[in-house]
Design brief:
Elements (H helix, E strand, L loop, with lengths): L9 H10 L6 H39 L11 H24 L5 H29 L3 H21 L12 H10 L12 H5 L2 H30 L5 H32 L4 H23 L6 H15 L9 H5 L4 H12 L1 H13 L5 H25 L12
Helix pairs in contact: 1-6, 2-3, 2-4, 2-5, 3-13, 4-9, 8-9, 8-13, 8-14, 8-15, 9-10, 9-11, 10-11, 10-15
């Protein structure tokens, strides 16, 4: 396996891994709490897109009635959500660089990051029902309270490294430390020049940007598409908008296990697995996204194709999305911070362009949006397939 360590210690690591079950382990608990952490991050982001519909409707009604008490919505909430997401993913990558054994990397990280999809799954319909039965303000109160509760549990139960964890077993601590032996740099100075000149890093930046173009476009505008094109009210809107992310959540958890199994039991290289899953996770969604534009007002097929498109996107989590840990574990957090910076650009630009292109709210205009997103997705997959790597880069350990 590429980047997994010396072959002479691999049998020892395999024996240690069999002795230290992942079930109920400290690393498994970390993955589960990280799952709920990303649930909170995305729930707090997604509920805004649903609540905004009610907020705007209420403001419009107030203005029609001559009231001047309602304030127009500001963009600050959206910007704060970007900030929360921007610091959370790099921080989690940096933690997993010290916690995730290479042969369990895909499983642990995909479980963690699947919380983002689950947060979307729950937040979209639940926010719709809260707005429908209560008031849009309760959306923020309820999810905010859940976030505070999670934060308290996280500070009590989680440690930065296995060495500092209070309840981890000695066997698990030894297994994790041995599995990561030789993968980290002993130099605290970040090799910035080598980092920016690394083609494998740019091979992650490009697909990350491309994947997020589609993701953010659908995340922010899918409720609008459901309401304006498919003509569902806000209660139905939330439930149907959540279906694509529900299937993506299921796929993410499954594919992480499959990716590790291919590396451990079927002698696939890390590079081959990452590229294969990236192709499936980007080209597959592109195909079904374009197909969505040709089903017209066939509501069932539209929701089905969008669900399949989003579900296949879950493969990319075990593809380029965790490749930072493969090429430079010591700097995984920094690398994700860099790639995520580029990847947030589509979140600001993509929805604006999509809104501009769909000014008349027609299916033909949405078809153009889907074509653009699909083309960008395919380009990202091709770029990673050509230039992506699965082994630790020399600059990451010898600087």
């Amino acid at each position: 396996m590429e980047g997994s360590g010396d072959e002479d210690i691999q049998p020892l690591l395999d024996r240690e891994r069999r002795k230290v079950s992942a079930c109920c382990s400290a690393r498994c608990n970390l993955a589960i709490l990280a799952f709920w952490g990303f649930f909170v991050v995305y729930a707090l982001r997604v509920n805004l897109s649903v609540a905004m519909v009610e907020m705007l409707d209420n403001n419009a009604t107030s203005l029609k009635n001559g009231s001047v008490e309602a304030c127009p919505p500001h963009s600050n909430s959206t910007q704060q959500n970007y900030v929360k997401k921007g610091v959370t993913f790099p921080a989690m990558h940096a933690m997993w660089a010290k916690w995730a054994p290479p042969l369990e990397r895909s499983t642990l990280l995909s479980l963690s990051y699947a919380g983002a999809q689950f947060g979307t799954v729950v937040s979209l319909p639940l926010s719709g029902m809260i707005c429908y039965y209560l008031d849009w303000s309760y959306v923020f109160y309820i999810f905010g309270a859940f976030g505070v509760a999670w934060c308290l549990i996280w500070f009590v139960m989680i440690s930065d490294t296995p060495e500092t964890h209070k309840t981890i077993s000695r066997a698990e601590r030894v297994y994790i430390m041995n599995s990561l032996c030789g993968q980290h740099s002993l130099n605290n100075n970040v090799p910035w020049r080598s980092l920016w000149q690394s083609l494998p890093l740019w091979a992650i930046i490009v697909p990350h940007f491309c994947y997020n173009w589609t993701f953010y476009t659908l995340l922010t505008l899918l409720p609008t598409y459901m309401e304006e094109i498919l003509q569902f009210d806000i209660k139905e809107n939330g439930i149907l908008s959540a279906l694509p992310y529900f299937f993506c959540w299921m796929v993410m958890i499954t594919t992480g296990f499959i990716a590790d199994c291919l590396i451990k039991n079927h002698n696939f290289t890390t590079s081959a697995v990452r590229k294969m899953f990236t192709i499936i996770g980007m080209v597959g969604p592109a195909i079904f996204l374009v197909a969505t534009g040709y089903v017209g007002c066939n509501y069932t097929m539209a929701v089905l194709f969008l669900s399949i498109s989003s579900a296949l996107g879950g493969f990319s989590t075990s593809g380029f999305n965790i490749n930072h840990l493969d090429i430079a574990p010591s700097y995984a957090g920094i690398l994700l911070g860099i790639t995520n910076t580029f990847a947030t650009i589509p979140g600001m630009v993509g929805p604006v362009i999509a809104k501009t292109l769909t000014y008349s709210h027609t299916i033909a205009q949405w078809r153009t949006v889907f074509y653009i997103a699909a083309a960008i997705d395919i380009f990202g997959a091709v770029f990673f397939t050509i230039f992506g790597k699965g082994e630790i880069q020399s600059w990451a350990i010898n600087n």
